[in-house]
Amino acid sequence: MSYICVKGLTKRYDDVVAVDNISFEAEEGEFVALLGPSGCGKSTTLMMLAGLEDPSEGSIVFNGQDVTKAAPGKRGLSMVFQSYALFPHLSVGENILFGLKARKVSNNERNARLEEVLDLVDLRAHVNKKPGQLSGGQCQRVALARAIVSRAPICLMDEPLSNLDAKLRNEMRTEIRALQKKLGLTVIYVTHDQVEAMSMADRVILLNQGRIEQNGKPEDLYNKPESTFVAGFIGHPPMNLIADAQMVLGIRPEHIALSEGAGLSTSVINCDYHGANTLIAVDYRGHALKFILQGHHNHPVGTPLNIQWQRGQEHYFSDQNGRRLAVPTVSHFLTEGLS
Amino acid sequence: MKKTNVIQAWLLLLPALVLLVAFTHLPTIKTIWRSFFSIGERTDTGFVIDNYQYLWEDDVLWQVLGNSFWYLIGTVPTSIIIALTMALWVNSKLKGRSFLRLAYFTPTILPMISVANIWLFFYSPEIGLFNTVLGWFGHDGYNWLGDPEVALTSIMVMTVWKEAGFFMIFYLAALQGIRPDLYQAARLEGAGSFTILRRITLPLLMPITLFVLVNAILNAFKMVDHLFILTKGGPNNASNLLLYYIYENAFSFFDTAYASVLTVLLLLILVLLALFQFGVLERRIHYR
């Protein structure tokens, strides 16, 4: 049995279903990201794991123990909040030690653990300051330290990096991942940022409208999206999805290239220069396709361009329910022009 | 450019300045002046300190100061604790809590004079509510406002009833300003409700507590209107408080000079209390 085992978890508010029958597992020491757009139920799921929301149905088992009804403090977990939830009237040290004091850990033990954790998160110089005197990144470290110091085997993180600027976010991403590996923590990490999920997690669970769309390794979500929703969510810019009478064809913008002579004859709709590359939108028989070219390109509207991609890089989905299809026997109109 | 800025600054300050000078600073200075330059109604005495010497000999004053002290001790902590308890209760998830909030706030909405009149009916010896209820249990009841032993306590009970609801609103607003994720974090860290109250809620309510404390103490010294209706300071000055005593001296005995001295005394007491509150307590409080 896995370390974390969630079965049939459901949360209803009156007539709204926020989380709809979610089941997943996580191994000890695994970093699992709950990814999805806002309102998909990822935060509600995390709150139920933490015990801060009561599930309407379903069970939560941590390390063989059913904790579905257990109090938040008795589940053997720690949590990092999106807002950090630091106690504004307590110093950094007191914030970190709050839980140990509440759990009546002895004074010596407390100080020893504080010393250890201060070095881990590099906060020694700020131990006597109040949270109001710290920068966003430092507050983030205090929240991390408070989670680590409890030595709970499971750590829940609710969009912990969303309040930081882009540069700091990249640094903290590596730092959190390194800490997690060093301490062997089992982390459930909620985020709406696919880059965070893809770069940090061992496994990504993509949620949509309260249901799991796909549960797999980051590369699986990218290479073998199970549905048009996953295909459209993962990847930046998102996959081109073109429907014909029988099915939906998906091709990632980064897989499309210019070709000499052969390929699809298209005309330019728009060029969007991004610095290192240019995002070009072209028209092919009334369908818009986007693709990326290295460097700076500025083609006037209507310029004819021939494009192609290597066969096998396209994905097929059912036009009925959006689920992934095996390579079809009939060909999609887009692939007819390709060699 | 710089000159117009200065003029504009003074113009903006003017309204507040006029009001403060006319109704606070000038009367204060005039009061201090009169306390040294008159005896009774006479103002042609030159500089005298007789009025101040009389302070020590005035037995009624010492009784009034004692009353004011016990009134302060009896009403301020009680109303603050009751206000806090009610706020914590009303803030919890409770059915009909908006009704409860309104009910607690009612004493504050009512005009002081009518409040005092209602309580006059509660307290009256023969037909009063309290004695009627006590009568059901075979108790003779008390002469609530006429007995020197209980008169001040009766006034205090009414004050607490009135103040607690007012202060509750402040506490309620402060409680709702505490972010819920702090409570969530505390619960996750294994803190029980008592620990959360002691280490999170109460410290975060301290700024409001100071505000409420200052107001409660000021109100305790400003209390005068109930006394007009209920006891007129009696019997035998048993429920007489400092401000009412000042009023008596100024407008019943027409000893405006001595009233000035008493006012200076009241000012001194208030200044000392304010210094204590903002000098000592303020440093221990975390402001968000």
Q: Secondary-structure element sequence of chain B?
A: HHHHHHHHHHHH
Task: Supply the helix-strand structural class of chain B.
Answer: mainly alpha
Give the low-confidence spans of chain A: none
Q: CATH-wise, what's the superfamily of chain B?
A: MetI-like
**Helix and strand run of chain A:** EEEHEEEHHHEHEHEEHHEEEEEEEE
How many distinct domains of chain B? Answer: 1
- Which fold does the CATH topology of chain B refer to? MetI-like fold
- Report the principal-axis shape of chain A: elongated
Measured on Cα atoms, how large is the radius of gyration of chain A?
Answer: 24 Å
Tell me the quaternary state. heterodimer
Tell me the strand percentage band of chain A: 25-35%
Would you give the CATH topology of the largest domain in chain A?
Rossmann fold
**Major sheet of chain A:** 6 strands, mixed
What percent strand of chain B? under 5%
The CATH homologous superfamily of the largest domain in chain A is called P-loop containing nucleotide triphosphate hydrolases
What distance separates the N and C termini of chain A?
49 Å
Tally the structural domains of chain A.
2
What is the strand and helix layout of this fold?
The complex is a heterodimer of chains A (339) and B (288).
Chain A: E1 4-13, E2 16-26, E3 31-35, H1 42-50, E4 57-62, E5 65-66, E6 77-80, H2 92-102, H3 107-121, H4 136-149, E7 154-158, H5 166-183, E8 186-191, H6 194-200, E9 203-208, E10 211-216, H7 218-223, H8 228-233, E11 240-243, E12 247-251, E13 257-258, E14 264-273, E15 277-284, E16 287-294, E17 304-308, E18 315-318
Parallel strand pairs in A: 3-8, 3-9, 6-7, 7-8
Antiparallel strand pairs in A: 1-2, 1-4, 4-5, 9-10, 11-12, 12-18, 13-17, 14-15, 14-17, 15-16
Chain B: H1 2-36, H2 50-57, H3 59-91, H4 97-109, H5 112-123, H6 129-136, H7 151-177, H8 180-188, H9 193-222, H10 225-230, H11 242-252, H12 256-281
